[in-house]
Each structure stands twice: as C-alpha cells, then as structure tokens.
Design goal:
This protein is of the alpha/beta class. It has one domain: Dehydroquinase, class II (Rossmann fold). The protein has a five-stranded parallel sheet, sandwiched between helices. Helix 3 runs parallel beside helix 4. The structure holds 1,3,4-trihydroxy-5-OXO-cyclohexanecarboxylic acid.
Amino acid sequence: GSILVLNGPNLGRLGSREPDVYGSGTLDDLRARLDSEAPPGHAIDLRQTNDEAELIGWLYEAVDTSSPVILNPAAFTHYSYALRDAAALVTKAGLILIEVHISNPHAREEFRHNSVISGVATGVIAGFGFDSYLLALDAVNRLLG
Ligand code: DQA
C-alpha cells in the first residue's frame, strides 16, 4: 500500500520560502529522498495543499484505504481543531499518523509552541530539516515491522 505524506499550507514554496528556516530543498527534492528510502512494498504518495478541506479529505482517504500517514500540518498545527478531529479519526482507526515539522517550532515564536494535532498523533518528529520526514518513515517501518 501507500504511505501518505501530507503537507499543509505554504509548503509548496519550499526552496524559496525562508530558506534560513526550512532549507533550500524543494518538495520535489523531498519526494525524491523519500522515494529512495521507501520500504519494499510501499509507495510514497506525497501531496501538498493550502486548503484545509482538501487536507481533511486526504485524512478520510487514509482511513478508507488503511494507509499510514506522515503529516506536516504547517500553520494548521497551531489552530485547526477541524484538522485535529480528522487526525483523530486516523489514529482512532488504529492507523499510524506521525506529525512532522522541518523546523523546531518550540524554538520559534510563542504561537508555534502549541500543537493541536500532537495530542491525537501517534508521535511527533520536529527540528531535523527534511530528515524529520525520513525519521518518520523509519518510525512507520518500525511500527509496521
Ligand atoms: C512547520 C512549522 C509551522 O509552525 C509553520 O507554520 C510551517 C512549517 C515546519 O515544518 O517546521 O508552515 O510545520
């Protein structure tokens, strides 16, 4: 099956968006790195949207297809109770949902210190650049293995 790697608002601008914070790699670079480390029998399905409704729909899709999820909720992390409730549907269904962040939000502005997603996630990985996603992939492997 697929591992869904879902990215929220403004992450389509990776590479040019605040490279001092997020690095110079693009979403396509990230996709290539994830593809090269995908576990046998799993395809990486990496997506990005600025639309909260679309992101929620993708979480329903994860439930319907029993797919593990690696989620970077971006700014929705800090205030979207709707996304939190959808994330809870995934983990309550017994599926893995790992919250990832490129930066370490705890080392940044106060409003980034709280995540409304973390309480319903399987676990959280933050602060390792694109490696946060690779570490999350490793975590998915360990949990499935
Ligand atoms: C982010 C951190 C969020 O605070 C921010 O709104 C983002 C990216 C990260 O990956 O570090 O858009 O989720």
